[in-house]
Amino acid sequence: METVHIVFGEPSVAPIQGAFELDEQLKGDILYFEDDLSIGPLFILDTKDGQAGRRQWWNQLAGVEAPAAPVLLEADPATPPVEEVSPDPEKFKELKARLKADAELQVWIWAGQNARDVSGYFWLVSQLYDFAGRIFIIYLNNLPFLNEKGGVFYPTHLHQILPKEFLKAKKLARAISLAEFELDGDEWSRLMNENAGIRLLEGGKKLRGEPASFYDKDLLAASNAEFQKANKVINQVTGKMKYPIMDQYLGWRMKELVKQGKLESKGELKASKDFEVKLV
Lowest CB count within 10 Å: 134, 135, 168, 170, which one? Predict the structure, then answer.
């Protein structure tokens, strides 16, 4: 029986591929989705307008364009087209087509205990109800694994796990129930309607929404009266987090703090390595 293994983010691919070399029965295609749905706008993301708004937000983070207005949530003919930030929509279409064409195909969703994986799971499961019974979840929630030195640790992300440890993890695979499809699909609708700036994992599969400015106070606390590289400030903040957030996101927040007059900058406001900041 053919299996498609799904992960959220390219770093999670390598350890699962390594596990394939150790267990022929585990082998299958690996599909990874790139977009980190734990950050940024989700409003009406199941529509073309919502997807366009999210692309525009990602381009804003990447410095492709910096609109003064908030992210558009409705189509605006005056707005120039933005670049596609990830091939996720096409990947999902191909996955759905494969499921329709092959009634024996199974999907295994692998998720670590972090907001990115859980957000991705809610998005994916909300759209796969028609294939109930063939969609499996392996949620490595607060489970002990062995590291390279044989010590026990509790990973938050799949890429932290050794390939051989995935052989034990595969035993946790279970079909997503009809009740879960409904409840978790409703949770995805809630997350879209809430449209928080970021989503934090509180435990289990419970996500808490917070405003986009949630980490601004930490960035300001790590800054001082002398200029220092923005990426140095970001590293100080992420180094204290149990669930690190994307550097690109924090770099965007630093630029917003500069615009708000809370930080002074020196250099081009592009990548965080290109400019310095200090407290005003």
Answer: 168
| Distance from C-alpha of 245 to C-alpha of 36, rounded to nearest angstrom | 10
User: Contact 239/195 with Cβ under 8 angstroms?
Assistant: no
Query: Which tens digit of pLDDT belongs to each residue from 172-206?
Result: 999 999 999 999 999 999 999 999 999 999 989 99
- What helix, strand, coil percent values describe the chain, rounded to 5? 40, 20, 40
Spatial CA neighbour of 73 closest among 95, 51, 92, 105: 51
Give the separation between CA 179 and CA 168, rounded to whole angstroms: 27
Estimate the crossing angle of helix 178-194 against helix 115-125, to 10 degrees.
Answer: 110
| pTM given for the model | 0.89
Residue type, 267: G
Domain range list for the chain: 1-210, 216-279
For the stretch 258-276, pLDDT in tens is 999 999 999 999 899 999 9
Residue 157: name the closest of 171, 168, 143, 167 by CA.
143
Q: Check: CB of residue 231 under 8 Å from CB of residue 269.
A: no
Q: Which fold has domain 1-210?
A: Dna Topoisomerase Vi A Subunit; Chain: A, domain 2 (3.40.1360)
